[in-house]
Design a protein that fits this description.
With about 60 residues, the protein is an all-alpha fold. The chain contains 4 helices and no strands. Helix 2 packs across helix 3.
Length: about 60
């Protein structure tokens, strides 16, 4: 997610606002894996990052 966000030149704050989060540090905790995204957040995140929901899951050995 971080790499995709950076490719799109979006800041932590940009994504946090679009996700409806209070601030960038909250989103950063999700991006770093401290918190887990809920299933209902994934469609919005996929639109923000211009990717597919399946891209969030490791389907092969990581």
């Amino acid at each position: 997610m971080k790499q995709r966000r950076q490719i799109l030149n979006k800041t932590l704050q940009d994504v946090a606002v679009l996700m409806g989060m209070k601030n960038a540090s909250t989103y950063m905790k999700y991006e770093n894996g401290t918190y887990s995204f809920k299933a209902d957040q994934l469609p919005l995140l996929a639109r923000i990052l211009d990717c597919e929901i399946l891209d969030f899951f490791c389907l092969k050995s990581c």
